[in-house]
Write a structure and sequence with these properties.
Structural class: alpha+beta
CATH architecture of the largest domain: 4-Layer Sandwich
CATH class of the largest domain: Alpha Beta
Shape: globular
Strand content: 25-35%
CATH superfamily of the largest domain: Metallo-dependent phosphatases
Largest sheet: 7 strands, mixed
Bound molecules: fe (ii) ion
Distance between the termini: 34 Å
CATH topology of the largest domain: Purple Acid Phosphatase, chain A, domain 2
Radius of gyration: 21 Å
Order of helices and strands: EEEEEEEEHEHEHEEHEHEEEEEEEEEE
Number of domains: 2
Number of strands: 23
Number of helices: 5
C-alpha cells in the first residue's frame, strides 16, 4: 500500500498477480464485509501493470475516498478472494497523528533479521504511514529474489494483527541505482518532468497542517531538482509543519562516509528559508538527532550549520532499519544525540490547541543490536501492539534509545 498522490482521497494498492488468472480487482468500502466481496460498495481494477523483476505488478489507484476514514477491502480474481485488509485515509483538518521513518535494509544474515524486527515494531506502533528513506535490498535494486523477499516481509510484518495496512512513502537510495526508475516499478512512485528517473515528489494533508517532500540524492540535487524543490516549497510555505526526506545525509555521523557539501549547497538554505521543521535521512546505518540548525557561513558555525532553537531544522537519521550499525564516531558540535544501533524513529505530530502549542516528538525505538560474539540481540519484539484507541500511548516496556537523561523523546520546539 502506497501513498503517491493525495493521501486524503487516494491510495494505491499494489500486488503481484498470477498472470494465468483473470479479472483481478479490489472490492472495497467503508463497511467491513470480511471476505464477502460481493457486498463491498466499490470495485477498482488495476490502472497500471508492470513486469519488472519477475513480477506481474498490478497498481490499483483508489480515488474519491473520504478523509480520515477506514476502508475495508479484498482482492478478488477468478480463482479466489484474498484476506480482508483495511486502511485509513489521512485527515483533511489539523489532527494529531504518528508516523514512522527509517531506512536501509539488507537481503541476508543478521541485517535481514534486524530489518524484520523493525518491520514488526512498525506494525505494533500502528502509524498513519511510513517514510522509507531508501536502500531496500542488497546490491543495486535489480535482483528479483531480493525484491520478492523485501515485499513479502513488508506485507507480512508491517500489516497489523487486525489487517490494517500501513501506507509506505518511498525514497530512492543508492542501492536502487541499478535503475533510476526502480521505485516507479515497485511502488508506482511519483516523478517529475515526465521522466521516471526523476523520482522526487511531495505530499500533504490536514488542511494547511502537514507537508512532506521526498527528495533524491542519487541524481543531481541542483539543477532541475533544486528548481522544482524551490517552487514546491514556495507553493506550500503556509503549511504549519514541513519536512523533507531523502537518502544521503549532508554530513554523516560516521567517519567512513564522505561529506556531501554539494547537496548542502543545493538544499540547506532552501530548507531554512522556507521554514522546514524536520529532515529525515538514511544511508549511514546509525542513529542521530541534531539540534535545530540553520545554515551559516560565519566562523561561529561548524560545517555550515549553527544552532537555532527557534527557526532551525532538526536533522534526524541515519538509516539503520536493518543494515549493520556503523560506529557513531563523527559527532558535530550541533549533534544532540547519536548511537550505533538498529532503530526506527516514531514521530508524534501534534497541532496547536488550547492546551498546548504545536509540536512534534521523536522516539528512537530500538529494534536490534549485536553482542560481543556477533549474535543478534532483538528489542521490542514482545511489546503489546497499540490499538486504534491508544495510538499515542507508549507501549509498556518499550525500549528506547537512551538520551542519557530521563527524557524518552526529543520534542521540538524544545
Ligand atoms: Fe545508502
Amino acid at each position: 500500500m502506497v501513498w503517491n498522490d493525495d493521501p486524503i482521497s487516494t491510495i494505491t494498492i499494489t500486488w503481484d498477480q498470477d498472470e494465468s488468472v483473470n479479472n483481478p480487482a479490489i472490492y472495497y468500502g467503508e463497511t467491513d464485509h470480511g471476505r464477502n466481496y460481493r457486498k463491498y460498495e466499490f470495485e477498482q481494477s488495476e490502472a497500471r501493470i508492470r513486469n519488472n523483476y519477475d513480477m506481474n505488478t498490478h497498481f490499483a489507484r483508489l480515488k474519491d475516498l473520504k478523509a480520515n476514514t477506514a476502508y475495508y477491502f479484498v482482492i478478488k480474481d477468478e480463482q479466489g478472494v484474498s484476506e480482508r485488509y483495511w486502511f485509513k485515509t489521512a485527515p483533511d483538518t489539523p489532527q494529531p497523528f504518528t508516523f514512522v521513518t527509517g531506512g536501509d535494509t539488507k537481503s541476508s544474515g543478521g541485517p535481514l533479521e534486524a530489518g524484520r524486527n523493525s518491520n514488526r515494531v512498525a506494525a505494533k506502533l500502528r502509524p498513519l504511514f511510513v517514510i522509507y528513506n531508501g536502500d531496500f535490498t542488497s546490491g543495486d535494486g535489480t535482483n528479483p529474489g531480493r525484491w520478492e523477499t523485501w515485499l513479502r516481509d513488508w506485507h507480512e510484518q508491517t500489516t497489523t494483527d487486525d489487517g490494517r495496512m500501513i501506507p509506505i512513502v518511498p525514497i530512492h537510495g543508492n542501492h536502487e541505482d541499478g535503475d533510476m526508475a526502480n521505485l516507479t516499478y515497485i511502488f508506482d512512485a511519483p516523478y517529475q518532468y515526465n521522466d521516471s528517473t526523476n523520482v522526487y515528489y511531495s505530499l500533504k494533508f490536514g488542511g494547511n497542517f502537514f507537508y512532506m517532500v521526498m527528495l533524491n540524492t542519487q541524481i543531481d540535487e541542483g539543477g532541475a531538482q533544486r528548481e522544482w524543490l524551490k517552487n514546491d516549497l514556495e507553493q506550500h510555505q503556509n503549511y504549519a509543519f514541513k519536512m523533507a526526506g531523502y537518502h544521503k545525509p549532508f554530513f554523516p555521523h560516521t567517519s567512513g562516509k564522505g561529506e556531501n557539501q554539494y547537496q548542502y549547497d543545493q538544499w540547506a538554505y532552501l530548507f531554512y528559508q522556507y521554514g522546514l521543521d524536520l529532515s529525515v535521512d538514511g544511508d549511514s546505518h546509525m542513529h542521530k538527532i541534531t539540534y535545530p540548525l540553520k545554515p551559516d557561513s560565519t566562523e561561529n558555525s561548524f560545517m555550515g550549520f549553527i544552532r537555532d532553537d527557534k527557526n532551525g531544522t532538526l536533522f534526524v537519521g541515519e538509516g539503520s532499519w536493518g543494515a549493520r550499525p556503523r560506529p557513531n564516531d563523527d559527532n558535530k558540535p550541533w549533534t544532540l544525540i547519536s548511537g550505533s544501533v538498529n532503530q526506527i524513529k516514531w514521530v508524534h505530530v501534534v497541532p496547536g490547541s488550547n492546551e498546548e502549542k504545536a509540536h512534534f516528538k521523536i522516539f528512537t525505538v530500538l529494534t536490534a543490536d549485536y553482542d560481543e560474539n556477533n549474535n543478534l540481540i532483538s528489542y521490542n519484539q514482545d511489546i503489546d501492539a497499540l490499538t486504534e484507541d491508544n495510538l499515542f500511548d507508549l507501549p509498556q516496556n518499550i525500549e528506547l534509545h537512551s538520551t542519557g537523561s530521563t527524557q524518552q523523546f526529543v520534542r521540538y520546539p524544545f
